[in-house]
Amino acid sequence: MNILIVEDEKRLANALKQILLEQKYMADVVYDGNDALDYGLSGIYDLIILDIMIPYRDGYEVAYELRKNKIETPILMLTAKDAVSDKVTGLNRGADDYMTKPFAPEELLARVKALTRRRGEVIIDEADFGDFNFNASTSTLTKGSKSVHLNFKEAEILKLLIANRDIILSKEDIITKVWGYDSDAGSNNVEAYISFLRRKLNFVNSSTEIKAIKKVGYRLENKG
Amino acid sequence: MNILIVEDEKRLANALKQILLEQKYMADVVYDGNDALDYGLSGIYDLIILDIMIPYRDGYEVAYELRKNKIETPILMLTAKDAVSDKVTGLNRGADDYMTKPFAPEELLARVKALTRRRGEVIIDEADFGDFNFNASTSTLTKGSKSVHLNFKEAEILKLLIANRDIILSKEDIITKVWGYDSDAGSNNVEAYISFLRRKLNFVNSSTEIKAIKKVGYRLENKG
DNA sequence: CTTCAACTATAAGTATGTTCATAATAAGCC
DNA sequence: GGCTTATTATGAACATACTTATAGTTGAAG
Lengths: 224, 224
Description:
Two copies of one chain form a homodimer.
Chain A: E1 2-6, H1 10-22, E2 26-30, H2 33-41, E3 47-51, H3 59-68, E4 75-80, H4 85-91, E5 97-101, H5 105-116, E6 126-129, E7 132-135, E8 140-143, E9 146-149, H6 152-163, H7 171-179, H8 187-203, E10 208-213, E11 217-222
Parallel strand pairs in A: 1-2, 1-3, 3-4, 4-5
Antiparallel strand pairs in A: 6-7, 7-8, 8-9, 10-11
Helix pairs in contact in A: 2-3, 6-7, 6-8, 7-8
Chain A binds a DNA duplex through helix 8.
């Protein structure tokens, strides 16, 4: 899956690329409207993430030109939170969706997923690890007949741990991915949630453990 | 858009049909697994909402048979909340998504929308009424440079009011659609939220009013 | 044994949703 | 028009869920 990121703020552009690469998307980055148009017109992308406030041509114009040239690539527009939104109202008619900055990585990924979903593709977001099952669409952690509901942050962290079962996740990783790239959450926030998660894993009698590797991070481990 | 509802609990089946018809979907209802298969095999549906616990053949079997017969219609499975979910884990591989009962109409509609979305179709959920703009994907109510965030219930009610701009919505309607078909919320719940909404409309200096029609319901009105 | 990272209980903060009591308002009646 | 009554409006209290912050405890490595 190929994604074009159009964003002049380098820090954000890199963060976006990072987030997408980790989810096995391919991502290219350009920093202004002219390049955006060049790259976009190639038609090789499955999605274009397009900031509105960019040099040379703004996002609206890029979207408009692409559509005029019969490029049907889905466009996810990014707007600043304080931007006057009636401008948006009338103008973003080339976009398929948009979101306001700043945003949490998960929100971005959900939208990217929706926009790149192919007909017939399964939505169910259910994962197994060790002896438990985690249903992301209902945020329910189950083992046998026991279930608990996970709240948002617990669920995000558990999903991360499951997705990265083979590598050790650092607290910084977790903060960046769950709290957001510009969050100021501290490491203890992560520790607290890890603690909540362990309690719930324990509650459903799972034999899976969240192992802490000192000074490095966390990893799921399946004792059994 | 054609939807097949497979649900033996009549009350729920009717509620589902109601909800869908109001959103301009076409909906047929059948009450058991045999009929589900007959109807489903016709291939005329864009979506099948399939309860698991139904007479003759359960939902899993229906889904499996459909897929075996090359029917690619998206399937949204319904499960009871207390159903043992590891059964689900292994078996629902014919389904595209599923949700647990009971659910709020909006959750259903969101999933239906996702499953029936066509490539290139716009997701942006933004509505204008009178002088304000409401962005459903960020739950933001805006007029000019002023914005407020609406919480879930406020947003749902406002969406309802906008969508039904020409008719008067009764409190019962609102309860059914926002709180759910089996909710026991009272009319004052609605009144309270209407009050919150008016305060927020006022905060952004909108000249739009939520007009109360005594003994009947509410309607948006655009003074200006 | 000491030290530092990790752990966890608990409290405080924030957002949301519900309920209750009372105030305001409109409609019907004299 | 005033009076009565039913309905709606609203502030405040209450309840709950989630998140963050504080601080003391535990435990492993050196």
